[in-house]
Amino acid sequence: MSTTLLAMNCRKVFLTLGGGRGVTNAAFGSHFVSVPRRSIIDLSYSTHFMDFKGSSIPSSMKKLVVTKLSQNFREAVSLQIVPVPTPGDGDLLIRNRFVGINASDINYTAGRYDPSVKPPFDAGFEGIGEVVGLGLSASARFTVGDTVAYFGSGSFAEYTVVPAKAIVRVPSVKPQFLTLLVSGATAYIALKRLGDLAEGQTVLVTAAAGGTGQFAVQFAKMAKCHVVGTCSSDEKSGFLKTIGCDRPINYRSEDLAGVLQREYPRGLDVVYESVGAASSIWPSTAWPRRRARFFLPHFLSDYGEAMADMLRKCGSGELVCEVDVGEMTPEGHFVGLESVYRAVDHMYAGKNLGKVVVQLPAAVESKL
Ligand SMILES: NC(=O)c1ccc[n+]([C@@H]2O[C@H](COP(=O)([O-])OP(=O)(O)OC[C@H]3O[C@@H](n4cnc5c(N)ncnc54)[C@H](OP(=O)(O)O)[C@@H]3O)[C@@H](O)[C@H]2O)c1
To answer: What is the C-alpha to C-alpha distance for residues 106 and 131, in angstroms, rounded to an integer?
Structure first.
């Protein structure tokens, strides 16, 4: 059995599970508590204002709200029409252009990150878009029209207020940059802080063609390791070859344990377990005793440096940032907040190749 083999031979395993406590409050939720507002653009006395492109910002918007705790995303989350939020003194109002889907979205809707947070609360962990409004303090570093991204709660909305200190500047509003905020950063920091990779080591990555796995494969290759990647289709295997994976294993057509026994009799040096809560292919009873867990919000001190390095590598083409915008699905591209449900289903059916991304309309129609 594959898991037993790995348990016996593997020297180090670490998990990047979507679990843990306090993601909302401890990591970034605290940025979203109500603070006295002193915004330079005050939406309270005007129905709308003009943004940098001259299109109006409506007084109301769509957003996805968790109204019931459930692992079933469709049951937990409802689409609501709410007022466009007003940025506080240190905040930016961002018009989201792309939002990222994470396997952890359903851990969040199930209330696993912080049991003290009760519905209703906002959904979505990451977005990329343009600044359309900002507070006085925030205007010291940002201006309307800046292209920015963020890792924080409440991104499944047409507009999100984000503290300026949580913002990552991006060269343009490309979905490829969005892939770095959670998925890229997780693989980068986990491998750097816990992987202890060395040239010539053998590294196995699970869900290797997914949002996070694609980066683990590439960073392990950059560390001159031999990389084995598991996935569920030949198409994904083909993609893994293009990003340097030495031995893609489609576990639906090949016996994972058999391949590892035959081709890696000396075992593996590191297993980057990117499936975890999402899968039962490695039962928890079979985990080796020596393992390390990684949870991104616990490593935010490494975040800025990781983002800067990845943005440079992504911009230069050194790092492939594959996005899955649903173009191959029967209903087509994931466009609009309504399609977030479909995008979550797509991921949980294991059909995604790369990071699942939903596009939001460039300009939200004003009803004014
Ligand atoms: N700890 C952290 O800070 C952190 C941060 C980010 C992500 N994560 C974790 O990393 C993992 C990957 O997250 P992601 O957002 O990048 O997702 P993803 O890898 O883009 O998508 C999930 C993938 O898991 C694989 N999978 C295997 N068994 C599955 C099953 N029974 N149901 C659904 N999918 C299954 C599928 O790939 P194949 O079909 O090819 O196997 C699927 O494409 C998740 O467990 C997530 O919680 C943790």
So the answer is: 28
Amino acid at residue number 77: V
Bridge partners of 161, per DSSP, are 93
Q: Please state, in angstroms and rounded to a whole number, the distance separating the CA atoms of residues 257 and 213.
A: 20
Ligand 1 atom nearest residue 354's Cα: 20
H or E segment and range at residue 355: strand 355-359
Q: Using the atom order of ligand 1, give the atom closest to the CA of residue 107.
A: 47
Q: Which of 14, 358, 344 is nearest to 186 (CA)?
A: 14
Residues in Cβ contact with 195 at an 8 Å cutoff, skipping those fewer than 6 apart: 12, 14, 203, 220, 223, 270, 272
Instruction: State how far Cα 79 lies from the chain centre.
Output: 21
> Is-contact 109 71, C-beta < 8 A?
yes
| Tokens at 42, concatenated | 């005050």
Distance of CA 339 to the CA centre of its chain: 17
pLDDT for position 197: 95
Residues with C-beta less than 6 Å from any ligand 1 atom? 16-18, 102-104, 182-183, 186, 207, 209-213, 231-232, 236, 274-279, 281, 294-296, 347-348, 350, 352
Mutation choice for ligand 1 from 2, 14, 16, CB with most ligand atoms inside 8 A: 16
- Distance in Å, CA 170 to ligand 1 centroid: 25
pLDDT one-digit tens code per residue, 166-199? 999 999 999 999 999 999 999 999 999 999 999 9
Structure-token pair, residue 49? 């204002």
- Lookup: tokens for 25: 């409050």
Task: Identify the band that residue 117 occupies on the pLDDT scale cut at 50, 70 and 90.
Answer: confident
Strand partners, 355: 323
**pLDDT tens for residues 306-340?**
999 999 999 999 999 999 999 999 999 999 999 99
